[in-house]
Amino acid sequence: MKDCLFCKIVRGEIPSEKLYEDDEVLAFRDINPAAPVHILVIPKEHIDGADTLTSSHEGLIAKLILTVQRLAEEQKLVQGWRIVTNIREHGGQTVRHLHFHLLGGGQLGDFGLK
Ligand code: 5GP
Ligand code: ZN
Q1: Separation between Cα atoms, residue 54 and residue 23, nearest integer Å
Q2: Beta carbons within 10 angstroms of residue 11's beta carbon
Q3: Is 79 in the pocket of ligand 1 (CB under 6 A)?
Q4: How far is CA 67 from the centre of its chain?
Q5: Active site residue 90
Q6: Measured in angstroms, how far is the CA atom of residue 74 from the centroid of ligand 2?
């Protein structure tokens, strides 16, 4: 996707602090961290969000979640951590390219309506 921000990060057109990369998955630090550890894990392939996944993505989704888990171990988040994926406007999705937030490094707050 030409104008997608995260596709540009995948292509290296926008710099990022990468923590993991393979042929399918990229992990990089969030530019505006909401917790001491805030990492984004994305598929290199453009997928709009969790709402557009299909059964063809089963293997990829497992790989993304396992990548988040491994990063949590590497970051030594032994007291706990959180995976978040926001979906569309009410879900707070600001970048329309599927991404999982890994959040940790301190006590996280509750969810809910604003
Ligand atoms: P969303 O709000 O869609 O769930 O998450 C998008 C995330 O992308 C936000 O946490 C935001 O801080 C992060 N972000 C936006 N632009 C950039 C960027 O250019 N580089 C990096 N590393 N993160 C970004
Ligand atoms: Zn994209």
Answers
A1: 20
A2: 11
A3: no
A4: 10
A5: no
A6: 26
Q: Is the pTM of this model over 0.90?
A: yes
Q: How confident is the prediction along the chain (114 residues), in pLDDT tens digits per residue?
A: 889 999 999 999 999 999 999 999 999 999 999 999 999 999 999 999 999 999 999 999 999 999 999 999 999 999 999 999 999 999 999 999 999 999 999 999 998 888
- Tokens coding 11: 């292509």
Helix H or strand E segment including 43: strand 37-43
* Phi, psi angles (nearest 5°) of residue 92: 85, 20
Q: Residue 33, by phi and psi: left (phi above 0), alpha (psi -120 to 50) or beta?
A: beta
Nearest residue (by CA) to ligand 1, atom 15, is: 31
